[in-house]
Amino acid sequence: MNCYCGENNTYENCCAVYHKNGGKTKTAAQLMRSRYSAFVLANGDYLMQTHHRSTRRLKDKKAIVKWAKSVQWLKLEVLESTIDTVSFNAYFFENGVTDVICENSKFVKENNRWFYLGLPNNDFNISD
Fold first, then answer.
1. On the CB side of 38, how many CA atoms lie within 13 Å of its CA?
2. Average pLDDT, stretch 10-38?
């Protein structure tokens, strides 16, 4: 079975590596994929740990985990990635409806580690 992030590898040989090593990835795209898998697994600790301190709101952790558990994650499509930006669609099923998060995420590298910074203009889009 492929990893939750859609890579042609098992979870144990893909995102689990980053979940166990604290998010030490080589690229922003790898970090984004591992964060998607963390959403699938409702791994709030990893999501907070890999979110940059300048935009991370620790009080949101409980709500993020609750929401991540309440939906069925369907698939991830990485549309484009640059050194510090990843555009993707994350599909999920909630309340009888399939929905998608379309995001153009920014990442920052500090001390040789990538962190999720957020979105340009601090916005994201959940489409119908």
1. 25
2. 97
Whether pTM > 0.85 for this model: the answer is yes
Q: What 3-state DSSP class applies to 116?
A: strand
Distance from C-alpha of 128 to C-alpha of 122, rounded to nearest angstrom: 20
Q: What is the mean pLDDT of the chain?
A: 91
Residue 17 has pLDDT above 70, yes or no: yes
pLDDT score of 128: 31
Task: Report the C-alpha gap between 89 and 69 in whole angstroms.
Answer: 19
Output the six-digit token pair for 124.
């994201």
Q: Which two tokens stand for residue 68?
A: 């991540």
Q: Which fold has domain 15-127?
A: Nuclear Transport Factor 2; Chain: A, (3.10.450)
Structure-token match 């549309």, residue found = 79
For residue 4, give the DSSP letter. T
> How many distinct helices (H) and strands (E) make up the chain?
4, 5
